[in-house]
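ok so for the tutorial part 2 we go from a plain amino acid sequence to predicted structure tokens. step 1 is just haveing the sequence, like this:
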Amino acid sequence: MSNRSRPAPTGPNLAPVFLAVIAILGAALAVAVMQNKQDQAAEKESAAEAAEEVQQQNNPFADIDNEPRRGGGARVRLGDSAPAGLADTPLYRAAKVLADDAKALVAEAEAARKAGDEDTFQDKGRAAREKLETAYEKTSDWLIDLQERYPDDRQVARIEREMLTWDRALRKVRKVR
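step 2 — the prediction. this is what the tokens look like for a chain of 177 residues:
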């Protein structure tokens, strides 16, 4: 056991200086990371704006507002202006029965085509097309009249949507000979 004592520190304590340097470097690193994230977000935003601008330049109708609005900018709201039971009229019910039969024939025709049976596809597709065209002929003038008399009616909109499903089915068999 020696009686040696440790010498008393003669210089300033450098630990707080080292801690301050490390804190400054950490803060600088954090600022650099945040700035990098902001730059990346700005680059993404400018790329999205550039892509939208290119799309608008390629679209000759980009300046047209297609939102359904009335004069004065009010949005169109569907109401109940038509008499109740439009979908229950005999004309529409008969056309809907034809169209529903035709949609079933379209599904059968598509299944036949996928199975490779072109003759069945042609036969069922032709029958479906004829029924859908008949349904359209029965209801097209009636629907135009309804659209003119009740432009923003829920029932008329529902009938329009149903007739759009007829159109989608008709497109599937349009090329049938």
